[in-house]
């Protein structure tokens, strides 16, 4: 009886093992078949037909806005401030007296010098008459003549010092906040205020050296500033004669009108510099570009498969990039799923 039960048990185990083996074997075959089928299944992608177009080549740059003219106002002489003749933040004209330093001591020195000048002038006149009568030597006359010339120079020097006590605006513009008051003892080291000409403003920016040959004086640029939707224009009037070695860039300066006074020196500007207009240019969406170690590449559709093409790309905008070589008109460029593609991968392209 025991032998019979043992035989039945062995039969059951054998049958169960055979069934399990068949199930596992069939499952493995199905998985291998699925993988093989997935490998041959084409990837669905979108693409565009490459066409040529006219490309307005604009270079986006960052620049800074500077005053057309700007100067720090100092006194050339030391003394007590006698009067201030400007309002802070106001517009002043060229030649307008801004403040006056007390000149009482200098005027006293001038009277003393003028008295001496008159005396030496009289001595010179007498010496000339005596020389004509041969009553004195030529040397004595020369001494009298030199004394008179020295006295004249001293008077002129003091007059120049007195003129410096009236500090005038060197050009028209807006004057800033003052740091002195009437009665302040001022020296040449004290900054009184800053004078800025904001009727016109300079926009300074730099471009990569490869674009240097495309920039000319007289070209018009557009620029925007933070906090304003208005687009301003400026004209290039000066170009640095050499490329900066450290940055390999060329500095350029343009000038813009600021009649409404809404632009301020010291702010940043987003500059758009127009370069050469390129006809029959090939421009593609930026999402079609795949960066690689030694440049950039794209994929095109070729007989149902993805073909890898290395391209030479240059100027870039927010949504597109200019291709110099590698693509031609009529190519079907793949624009989606490019990061997961490989060369010769099967694809199914939907052309937009």
Features:
single chain, 352 residues, alpha+beta, Helix Hairpins, 3 helices
Distance between the termini: 80 Å
The amount of helix comes to: 25-40%
Number of domains: 3
Question: What's the CATH class of the largest domain, please?
Answer: Mainly Alpha
List the helices and strands and how they pair.
Elements (H helix, E strand, L loop, with lengths): L1 H39 L2 E7 L2 E4 L2 E16 L5 E6 L6 E2 L4 E5 L2 H29 L5 H26 L2 E3 L4 E3 L9 E2 L6 E16 L11 E5 L7 E8 L9 E9 L10 E7 L3 E8 L4 E3 L2 E8 L2 E12 L3 E6 L6 E3 L12 E5 L1
Parallel strand pairs: 1-21
Antiparallel strand pairs: 1-20, 2-15, 3-10, 3-14, 4-6, 4-9, 5-8, 6-7, 8-10, 10-13, 11-12, 11-14, 12-13, 15-19, 16-17, 17-18, 18-19
Helix pairs in contact: 2-3
Walk me through the structure.
With 352 residues, the protein is of the alpha+beta class. It folds into 3 domains: 43-55 and 278-351, conserved putative lor/sdh protein from methanococcus maripaludis s2 fold, CATH 2.40.420; 60-67 and 196-274, Efflux pump adaptor protein, beta barrel domain (Elongation Factor Tu (Ef-tu), domain 3), CATH 2.40.30; 73-186, Helix Hairpins. It is 27% helix and 39% strand. It has 3 helices and 21 strands. It has a 6-stranded antiparallel sheet with strand order 2-15-19-18-17-16, with no helix packed on it. Strand 18 and strand 19 (320-325) form a beta hairpin. The longest helix is centred in the first third of the chain and has 39 residues, at 2-40. It is elongated. The two termini are 80 Å apart. The mean pLDDT is 87.
């Amino acid at each position: 009886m025991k032998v019979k039960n043992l035989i039945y048990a062995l039969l059951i185990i054998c049958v169960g093992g055979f069934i399990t083996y068949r199930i596992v074997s069939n499952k493995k075959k199905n998985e291998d078949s699925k993988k093989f089928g997935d490998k041959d299944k084409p990837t669905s992608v979108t693409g565009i037909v490459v066409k040529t177009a006219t490309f307005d080549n604009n270079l986006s740059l960052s620049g800074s806005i500077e005053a057309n003219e700007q100067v720090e106002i100092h006194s050339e002489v030391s003394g007590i401030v006698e009067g201030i003749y400007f309002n802070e933040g106001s517009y002043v004209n060229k030649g307008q007296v801004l403040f006056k330093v007390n000149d009482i001591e200098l005027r006293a020195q001038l009277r003393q010098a003028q008295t001496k000048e008159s005396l030496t002038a009289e001595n010179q006149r007498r010496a000339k008459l005596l020389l004509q009568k041969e009553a004195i030597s030529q040397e004595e006359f020369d001494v009298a003549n030199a004394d008179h010339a020295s006295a004249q120079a001293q008077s002129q020097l003091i007059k120049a010092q007195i003129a410096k006590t009236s500090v005038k605006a060197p050009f028209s513009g807006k004057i800033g906040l003052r740091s002195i008051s009437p009665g302040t003892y001022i020296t040449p080291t004290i900054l009184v205020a800053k004078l800025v000409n904001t009727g016109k403003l300079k926009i300074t920016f730099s471009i990569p050296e490869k674009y240097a040959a495309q920039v000319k004086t007289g070209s018009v640029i557009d620029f925007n500033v933070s906090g304003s939707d208005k687009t301003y224009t400026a004209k290039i009037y000066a170009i640095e004669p050499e490329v900066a070695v450290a940055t390999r860039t060329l500095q350029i300066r343009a000038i813009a009108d600021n009649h409404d006074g809404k632009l301020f020196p010291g702010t940043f500007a987003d500059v758009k510099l127009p370069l050469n207009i390129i006809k029959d240019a090939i421009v593609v969406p930026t999402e079609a570009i795949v960066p690689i170690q030694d440049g950039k590449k794209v994929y095109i559709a070729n007989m149902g498969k993805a073909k890898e093409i290395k391209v030479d790309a240059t100027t870039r905008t927010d949504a597109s990039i200019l291709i110099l070589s590698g693509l031609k008109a009529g190519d079907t460029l793949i624009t989606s799923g490019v990061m997961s593609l490989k060369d010769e991968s099967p694809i199914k392209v939907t052309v937009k």
